[in-house]
Amino acid sequence: MPETGVDERFRARFRREARLAAGLVHPHAVPVHDFGEIDGQLYLDMMLVEGSDLRRLLGSGLLTPERAVALLGQIASALDAAHAAGLVHRDVKPSNILVDADDHAYLADFGIAFPTSPDATALTGSGPVLGTWDYLAPERLSGGPVDGRADQYSLACVLFECLTGRLPHPGGEPAAVVAGHLLAPAPAPSVFAATVSPALDALVLRGMAKDPTRRFPSCAALITAAEVALRDRPAVAAAPATLAAPVDPGQEWLVRAVVRAGAGRRCAGPADETMPPCPYPGLRSFERADAAWFHGRDRMVTDLLIRLAEQVRHGDPVVLVGASGSGKSSLLRAGLLPALDTGDPAGGDRSGHDASTPHSVRGGRPAPDQTQLVCTPGADPIGALAAAIAPLAGEPAGELAGEIRRAPSGFGEWCRRLAGPGPARPVLVVDQFEELFSHEVPDADRLAFATALASAAPALVLLAVRADLVERCVDLAPLRPALATPVFLGPLSETELRQAIVTPAQDAGVAIEPGLPERLMADLGVRAAGS
After folding, report:
1. 531 in a domain, yes or no?
2. What residues make up the domain containing 331?
3. CATH assignment of the domain containing 172
4. Quick check: is 151 catalytic?
5. Nearest in space to 189 (alpha carbons), one of 221, 146, 236
6. 369 pLDDT band (50/70/90 cuts)?
């Protein structure tokens, strides 16, 4: 068992899931005989299956669609049994599907997915990353709720590969694969294998739907549909070899940020060995320099990164909506912007940048030639916007403000000057966008400001708006498409709140009094799980 076993949280999850896997008795699940720990090393004792695995069968050229579906039908029954028992496999892939000489299929590593190879990487919110990029469901990547439908997505990916001989979202590295699962529509298998029928196309695409609610009610239902579709078409030869696909460089750097955000952050550590800093900012907002202590909003950071990646293709700004005091500014300054850095989102030099004023952020280790700008509208939003970009656009702020007022739809040309030669785009964050209405801003300036932001491509734009003033913002016609699909910032969940309370103290080397997190959450009206 890998060294990950030394982590106590990993040990606890290992024991819990090994116990669940050992309790699952199914003819198509590899039996777990025993598990435990010897001399500090975790171990798992499973039945030895004499035969091959689906990965090798795919490479042999001997796997017809009919045989593949027959094998996957056995695996589907094991998955459904596990889901009924409350167990999610999380790493369904060809190399975990074992096949004996009689074509009896077994699903291996049930409920246990260890990061033992470069392609075995996980995105769980509470520790090691589990799963293989090529088959991971979008909700696994974005931090959404995960249930048996995530396994169905992976099974549909395996079916896609069996029918076409290629992965649904191939790529040379994780960022390209993640971009496909998160952002690209699932390709129809018939694009790569002309013998695949429309019925097979439809069922594979349903199994790989981005929205889990659009998938089949069970894994068996997916494979049963495939069996019916195969009966209605003539038999064909085995699928060709796996092919590669190009990557969209405009999105790749953002997807890398998603990968880094999901891979977790390193402990910040105390400022010096004798006096650890207070890891809690109190009533003030988190700033970029506090990124190491900012916890509990990983899923929101990932959601915003995904929406920014979608903006590369669709163009409309991303709108973040939350109640007053919900933590929008902290999320943007200590969460999102550091996550865009190419280095550790919690590390690096954050000094010298005041995120409360317009500036160009080049602290930490941002992507090469990437520019991050933050501004608040205030009473003169056009002037604030011009002041933010003037130093990099090579134009006096006053003259630039006049140009924006005169031709706001041409603002993108000024933003183009901020873009470097690489794929990373400038990012413009407008915090407290509601100041357009809480200050006495002329209507003409409001419209010009909104038009400029809607026309800022190639820059990526994110607006943070107070929830009670969203209706006023809808009056700004250029931003209506963006306001129609906002990202909502709600209260922290029980798990997120516990993380926000406990993790900063752990990072600072400070012990938390037993029961204190529960009392704090009770004071906030949050009921702890299991209580």
Report:
1. no
2. 250-489
3. 1.10.510.10
4. no
5. 236
6. low
